[in-house]
Amino acid sequence: QEGVQSSGVTIDAGAEFQLSLDNRQVAVTSGLITVPPGTYETAADLAAAIETAINADATIQSGAAGAQTTGGSRNINSAIDFGVDPAQFEFNLNGTDYTIDVDTTTGGGNLDSIQQATRRVV
Fold first, then answer.
1. Cα distance between residue 58 and residue 45, in whole Å
2. pLDDT of 3 above 60
3. Distance of CA 104 to the CA centre of its chain
4. What is the mean pLDDT of residues 33-48?
5. How many Cα atoms are found within 13 Å in the side-chain-facing hemisphere of 95?
6. Which residue in 15, 60, 87, 110 is a FRET match for 37, CA 20 to 30 A apart?
7. Beta partners for 35?
8. By the 8 A CB rule, do 103 and 117 touch?
């Protein structure tokens, strides 16, 4: 409407940035991410536009990964006797590498056996 001013923030054309991420499986740096020009009435509107722009970057998409297993992994949905068939896994917690040897079976099942082995190390 004429005479009404926006209380939001206006982003001009050319607002660009790059973003790098390292999720311990892959490190990537985006291409130029462009914030669409316009007036954003709320912080949520601007955040949504930035999020959409980030998610549209192919390099960031390729680096979006969660946990990853290797060929020697196993399904823990079935009962495992870790005393007969031990397992080992490694992880990094706050910059410290840990190796967990699951080599005994507890009465609480697979998850309990893994938790007990983790408590011995962490």
1. 23
2. no
3. 31
4. 92
5. 0
6. 60
7. none
8. yes
The tokens of 86 are what? 């031990």
**What digits encode the pLDDT tens for the residues 59-89?**
888 776 554 555 556 677 778 888 888 888 8
DSSP secondary structure letters along the chain: -TTPPPSSEEE-TT-EE--EEE-SS-EEE---EEPPPEEESSHHHHHHHHHHHHHT-HHHHHH-------TT----SS---TTTS-EEEEEEETTEEEEEEE----TT-HHHHHHHHHHHH-
Other CB atoms within 10 A of residue 56 CB: 13
Burial (CB count within 10 angstroms: exposed 0-12, middle 13-18, buried 19+), residue 55: exposed
- CB 18 within 8 Å of CB 32: yes
